[in-house]
Amino acid sequence: MPGWNVRESAQTPRRVHAHSVARRDTYGADVRGRMAGTAPPAATRGLSGRRTAAILLLTAAVAMLVLASGCATSHSRAEQFGKTFYLDGAGNWGFGASEVPEGLMAAGYAGDVEIYIWTTSFMPLVDQLNFGAAKIRALALADKIKRYRRAHPDTEINIIALSAGTGVATWAIESLAEGVRIHNLILLGSSLSHDYDMSKALQHMTGKVYVYYSPNDTVLQTVKLVGTIDGKRGVDSAGAVGLKAPPGYEHRVVNVAWSREWLRYGWTGAHTDCTSVQFVRHEIARHVVPEERQRLRSAAHSESDAAMAAEFQ
Predict the structure, then answer these.
(1) Number of structural domains in the chain
(2) Contact 277, 102 (CB under 8 A)
(3) Which domain does 69 fall in, by range?
(4) Are residues 166 and 235 in the same domain?
(5) What pTM, to 2 d.p., does this model score?
(6) Cys-Cys crosslink for 156: which of 50, 58, 183, 203, Cβ 3.0 to 4.6 Å?
(7) What proportion of the chain, given as a percentage, has pLDDT over 70?
């Protein structure tokens, strides 16, 4: 994930552990040798310990490279079938980071899902009001999109964003070069102002902007006081009342209000549970997964359900 190398971080304790194990093993052999009267000279013992530690570290490094290579190959293979970026909200608390990819995959999505981290802190208020940093991270995302599009000119690119991440996603799309376009933009609990002008972003899109909003979102009531991600105070967020479509683009801004029917999929109308696996799978994925693949997935599930029903008869 951009900004945080999980694989490196996960391996750090293992390298330290491997080194400490080597030291313990060498120390144990040394003590046993002394007791038996066969311990090697001190200089040799030190050299042997260092050599053992070096071998273990080298082995661990090779294993890490093999693992990274495998992940990169899988990542590259998935990118051939499309790309979806997901942006969490301010503070990067991980809402949707695992649920969105899982929900899309369950719906039959074969493309790559990349979690794009744009935040500079773990404090939502800091990220919400740090417009300069958010704009810089938007430019970096635009560059990622450009590079992906150059490598894969015929696949679809979609973006799903939550809360303040919707502002960064929108600015990234606005920053794309002429001729570079994404397909759909899905805004969840958006803290952009409800009258934000989406016309510039839509010029770099082939599809639509889908806005999922809820008047029951208490977080966005606070945003009304402190300020939206685009710097307005005292106004409603798009995630609370929907997004006003710019003139001429009415058919390309789709506002979807929360209703009780979404409860069965885990969206209660609160700020972040619209990223639940089931809601992503049954609703959000419709804007990302190609229709033909959705039909195939649905048919497969129907056949599976029928087979299970027959088995219990």
Answers:
(1) 2
(2) yes
(3) 6-73
(4) yes
(5) 0.74
(6) 183
(7) 69
